[in-house]
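Hi R.,

Quick one: here's the O-glycosylation ligase, exosortase A system-associated sequence you asked about.
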Amino acid sequence: MRDLVLLVILGWIFIQAFMRPWIGILGWTWLSIMNPHQLSWALKTMPFAAAIGGATLIGLFISKDRRDYSLNRENVTLMIFMLWMCITLPFSMIWDESFDLWKRVMKIDLMILVTMVLLHSKRHMMLLTWVLVFSIGFFGVKGGAFTLLTGGSYKVWGPENTYIDGNNEVALAIVIVIPLMRFLQMQMKARWAKAVMTICMVLMALAALGSHSRGALLAIGAMALVLWWRGKNKFVGAIVMVVVAVALLSLMPAEWWERMNTIKSYQQDESALGRINAWGMAWNLAKSNFFGGGFYIWTGVIFAIYGPDPTDVHAAHSIYFMVLGEQGFVGLFLFLLLFTMVWFSAGALRTQARGKPETQWLSDLGGMLQVSLAGYAVGGAFLSLSYWDLPYNLLVLAVVGRRWLARKEWLREKDEPIIYWPEFLKKRFEKKKHVPLP
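And here's the predicted structure, written out as tokens:
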């Protein structure tokens, strides 16, 4: 039954993608972030993302939907970053595996660019936010309930065969999405809806803690600091945060506290020392190779050449050192530049849209995007999620939001007339079509 329902939903998205490609891009995002077919019995290996992505690209050119090909600093920088990854590809140290990962990253970045072309309205931005929240919230709320029922004695893991199947990776994804849930809550009117969202956010935070990820704990701390700093009443905000933190941390078992305490004594922790060794390897490789080593360098062969400890082989465990080792110093510069731009674009939304009833929602979005970015910047320092879609969807929301505000789209969506029709023509059209003209 589960497979049949999923097949019907994906089939509908596939058909709609030809006529309304913005629906296709939302469906592709859902598949890419959540991987719902991995929860099925017989559909796990079906190429749904490729099918919907292809239908969306066809719809991009044949449909009459509005499209926006305007350039801005974010999409130009992303395209330059993609070009740089194409330039570094021939210099990859392990070609076959690097080429496979390069194709995956190019697909992701291409669809991010397509998303910025197709989405343009408030409705689109709200739906994209809901897709991101549902995709990760499904696992986060379930993981929070699991942590609550088991007293945190077992780790929360992500969905298998995805970018976030590890405990650390799913924790960072959860951390990034919590501020987006807060944004949606700020737009809600019904008390019951706000209460449900509050419960979901608490469970999400509990799931992040239940992952036993030290990076997630630091990311939550960074986000809490940004939220507190942005709050109007800092004293009340501090008290609320302390109460919530104490309540959540009191649920965690002794082994969780022992693991978190290794943050202070990282010199004696093998996992932490392994990460530092991987960072050292990435630094040495980038110094010796202007174009980096390619997408697949975290192997014993490469560590034997560039690793401070050649025998201690680890994954990058850092978005920064991952890009540095794979794409060199130029690639790291472009990566940092891109997300710095997103940070300031979100900040511009927060300040420029503030105070007007029609645009206050966009100010709320900008503020929460910055909170999510703070979590990604801190938590990502210890995790290998440099190319995953979710952070780049924050970029999409910031770009589309600034474009929407700059063009005063809120005037259109406020049902104010854009074309002033002659009165006799307006009445005749509305009588015939039963559709009011603007």
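DSSP finds 18 helices and no strands in the chain.

Cheers,
M.
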